[in-house]
Write a structure and sequence with these properties.
390 residues, mainly alpha, 2 domains
Amino acid sequence: MTTAELPRILRKPGEPQVPAFLELFFDLVYIFMLSRLAAGLADDLSARNLLQTAVLLSAAWWVWVLTAWLTDIFDPRLAIIQATTLAVMFGALVMAIAVPHAFGAQGYLFVAAYFAIHVVRDAVLVPGTRVNRDVQARSARVFFWFLVTAPLWVAGVFVDGTARLVFWAVAVAIDLGSARLGWPTPRLGRTELASRVFTREHLSERHRQIFVVALGELVLTAGTGLQARDFAGVVVATGAAGFGGAVLLFLLYLLRVRRLIGPDGGGPVDRVRPSIYTSYTHLVMVSGVLLMSTGTTLAADRPYNYSRVSWVLVIFGGPALFLLGSCLFDHLVTGRFLWPRAIAIVVLVAIGPAMPLLSPLNVMLVANVVLLGTLGVELVGGRRRRAARR
């Protein structure tokens, strides 16, 4: 296929692969989205609300993934793509506004915004790629699967409680899972895995950016603790511990994951990029950051209490989820396990039952010590491997 046969709105071969400034602007709405999700979870740590938060986060994540693909495949310098991205950004903002009451009175608003994002996106992409049936079919397949899950999202609006949770959980699972299968569609077939190899540098940088955005929300939460009006020592210490946790996650991410998905990642990255596992594993890591933000809020609000079991699950669950996500990603890329991180997860699970005896601040400090120890082990191991190769 020649360049002339490609739809005008596609990126052209050889164009710059760095994310556009508009994409960074788009990510700002996710600071608000993640803060709303973390605050809602801190207000209610029930198992039901944890599942509800997971559903809402997954839906928001799916919107982010589709937008990252939008600006990866299509030329973000075109006015129509820029307008579409801004429209999606506004839809994500409305979704974030509805988050606290999405499983209550504002469920319709969350679903309406989610629907509008898909409709606007595909109303632009399907007609805009009509000059090439293969390219158009890819957008049509995504829209078909949106129509498959639409009845479940709508049905959830008209029911309450467990029924809404079940409908929406199934819907978002199909949304995420259909991508892994290539969106098989009647008469159109499915998108082959090989055709999902997008621009390596662009999508790699986009995933790095959204992870940094998640860390930004954690820093914001930690800063809220640090600005305590009475400057109570334990509250300020909790904010400092939250900030320390953010720094440790950043260093652990920088040490391993960032290098694996960077432009210099080399051949091994190409084995994982044809799938969407990069997005799946980053969702796990971002979920861990979200839990750490929730734990920081809990510790700042109730610094003198003994830790409840649910608090320990959140404060330890955040680091554990991040470590799990990074382990899964590393395994998909290299075929190996990051044993220091896997052992750190085991350590968190093993010492967790004793943590209710401590205050939330001390539980956070223990979690940070485990992260710090993991970082130290990996740094020492990296130096030894480099020395052995000399």
